[in-house]
Write a structure and sequence with these properties.
mainly alpha; Endonuclease III, domain 1; two-stranded parallel ribbon; 2 strands; globular; Adenine_glyco; metal ion binding
Length: 217
Amino acid sequence: SCYVAFHDDEWGVPVHDDKKLVELLCLSTALAELTWPAILSKRHLFREVFQEFDPIAVSKINEKKTVTPGSSASSLLSELKLRGIIENARQICKIIEEFGSFDKYIWGFVNHKPTIGQFRYPRQVPIKTSKADVISKDLVKRGFRGVGPTVVYSFMQVAGITNDHLISCFRFQECIAAGEPNVKDDNFKANAEGKRTGDAADLGLAGAIGDLNLSTE
């Protein structure tokens, strides 16, 4: 499924490209109304509507036209969330002006190094943390919408700012290695390949994350 591929290829991989970070933040805010599988099934539409998530282009989108009933965007999210994505893009543009990139800003909260979860069981993985709360408050102060700490933590997980793959998952060490490009461990790669089909616990985590709906955020 698209969600399994998402877990295996993207979730937890450290992202430093601004457009990709903008996309993942926008999709995370959509969790207030949709689950990850639902979002991923419409990802091509999100990219089409939101100009491939170029923050400058998104910031200039005509809100009235976008939220008009019957528009392709209106089939994705509520008017409130659509307007929020456009407004957030405007604030991201300001951050890029201030910090040079959204990447420098957001990764600065973790000293530019992913935090590692080290969890054995899905039930141990939090839905928000004190760090997510700090980031959320700063984003809100800057004028962002729909970025409560639970949404922010989902963004941190998917963007690899935190690695919450279970330690038994083949992606746990791979995502650590992705965050440290100079580290090479051929033995690990061999072990990871052998584990790809056996991570029932992590698939349970993937299912739990996939079903997550952040209606309170």
